Task: structure prediction
Amino acid sequence: MKDFFGSMTGRVFLVLLLGMIASAALTQWLSVGERTRSFERYRDFHAMERAEQLITTADALASESRPTYLRMAERGTIKLERMAEAPAAIRPATAFSSTLQQRLAKGVQLLPLADQPAECAQPRQRSIFAPSQWGGACEAMYVTLRDGARLKLSILPPPEVPATALSEYVALLPFLLSVAALAYLVTRMAVRPLKRLAKAAKDLGNDINHPPVVLSGAAEIRQASAAFNAMQARIRQHIMQRTQMLAAITHDLQTPLTRLRLRLEKVRDDELQQRLIDDLSAMQQMVREGLDLARSMDASETMQALDLDSLLDSVCSDASDSGQPVELRGRANMALMGRPLDMRRCLVNLIDNAVKYGHYANVTVERIAGAARVVIRDGGPGIAKDQMAHVFEPFYRIESSRSRESGGTGLGLTIARNIAEQHGATVALNNHPAGGLEVTLILPESYASRL
Result:
């Protein structure tokens, strides 16, 4: 759930949902408020008619017949009842009492009482949108008829229909569900093209020859997709030109270097001849690794399913057969979608680097949370933390490794990282607490599956 609301889909959905609910709640509040005010006005009009009728009838009746009538008039929410004595306190006339006074016969006096009925302050049934108290006429009035009879007129709120808060929430549930479904549908429609572009960008990082994005959706999305496809074409062209240039240079250098080696055989000074041959061998190695670097940036090889355990076993076995102290432990039981030659070159470079500078390579493979982790540990002195980021740069070599015995051109780790990134993998370096360097290659779940 946290990941969902942390994504753009979740945030857009939440904003839409809250906005629609707030808008609907405001509309409902205004609607209920207007309906309540209309009902209060209608109720006041009805109360005015009823009060005038009660007082007029009581005033017209003879004093001996009035008690029977008052027993009937004491019922309901508009009541007229006998008052034993004059009120102790009155208050200024209200709009309701003033209007009613004008409608009564001359000689009938109407005075608002200071003591209001208890029902006026009584809270109404709990409701989400309706007011908490009755807003219409609610008061008590002292009535003096033409014959001097003292009566009390009470205008009370109408009776409420019993309701529970739970029933209101249940009634709102279908509305909330429909709003949530609509908000989610709109969010999906808005975010889906962005997800498609994000996936295309990720695929572009792993395969520059990935098919272009299909132009569909709104005009702005089609424009962004077209711009992305144009960018992909330009990047592909730049990489192809750089790769071809590097491959051509390194390839063309091999012919004069071969001629130089043949001519060095005629040098009479044995010591000088050996030094020149060693320098020439280093140059030829650099040319070969330059070709490998050019190939590592080329993603033209077809992706296919590879058994990671079989690939590691083959690479380690070949290294052991050539005399390198390499040991393999563990199994991943995963199939990897990758380019066979490139993945083999990546693993070979990492193992050769461990043996060259760390004297041996202990390879461990395991499956972790939907990914394969390959750890290659050596017995060397490790690498300073400030140099770990630089060893992946082309032709970069740690000063302590510059020797005839170790050799190397500084391209091995660069080539390995290029190939790993093309397969969606990562290569990380870490000094082991017990000594030695650990190289960790992690192949993510999107590029591997359980056998």
